[in-house]
Give the backbone structure.
Amino acid sequence: MDEVVLAVGTRKGLFLTRRRGAGGDGDGGWGELSGPHFPMQAVYAIGIDTRRRVPRLLAGADSSHWGPSVFRSDDLGASWQEAPRPAVRFPRETGASLERVWQLQPAAEAAPDVVYAGTQPGALFRSDDGGETFAFVRPLWDHPQRPEWGEGFGGQAVHTVVTDPRDPRVLLVAVSAGGVYRSLDGEADWEPSNTGIQAEFLPERYPEFGQCVHKVARDAADPDRLYLQNHGGVYRSDDSGASWTEIGAGLPADFGFAVATHPRRGGVAYVFPVIDGSDRYPPGYRCRVYRTEDAGASWSELSTGLPAGDHYGVVLRDALRTDDADPVGVYFGNRNGEVYASSDEGDSWRQLAAHLPDVLCLRAAVVA
């Protein structure tokens, strides 16, 4: 029987749970959380690779003693393997060293063994063996604008990798704080793709690069359509990132970190707004997800089952995700250590976990 696996990365380890059945509430509901896997290690990146005959979990864990590493499991977390040499490492001549893996993204079906890793400092790595070893993508590192990239509050990182289901040579990355960059030729050449995105903290409001982009997600029905959560602004692109239009009207705040899309329905995206400024709390101190079903023309508040009183949890860039079940599950975790799940595309919610360490990221997928 198919199951949904949910992986939750926190500041002090990885937690896993599963639900029998891939639709609605399943047959048996959610099991208990297992973990922490990698205790006392910050897990900023998770990948669930369902392209393989045996699903593979990937985790980017950061030990204060041993340093950052990438681990893999082919038995849904019962055991983990680590490459004998560092899976992700910078060439010596760059003078850089890996601080953290921020993203582990399996590529499209047409490239079944390819997995991308985005890192801090801001760089991209490619694996051709399912995430066991990674090669440095030098053309992005050598881009003439890279030395001028800034740093977000969490550091400078390639934190988002978006592949194109139609063409494995097409790739988009987001850098904090460098903006969006695209390659159309298999990572050989890169161009900034930030037209229309503001950088309110820079002298030039709409620069060619330097924006503090927080997350990008691709539309399911129209691969040329992308959604972007910026440091001040929610945007949509209808031309694969060549240009962007603001779509934040109707939201209580246009700041936030996360954006996720429905895996099958076009025009459906989810955000978790946050007030910009010194407090960085949800607007009105209310825990609310917002959904658009018309590509950002309007937004609806999703609150059934979420806390009704004052709430101060913030959802980080990789901590709001969807699965590929039918109906689709939607999940988010916050810095309060809470995890919420919806099995009806966001219409209602239930709390799956509380009192975890800060939730940094999560992933969910149907596995056989």
Observations:
- Residues 103 and 295 are 25 Å apart (CA to CA).
- The chain has one helix and 28 strands.
- The mean pLDDT is 95.
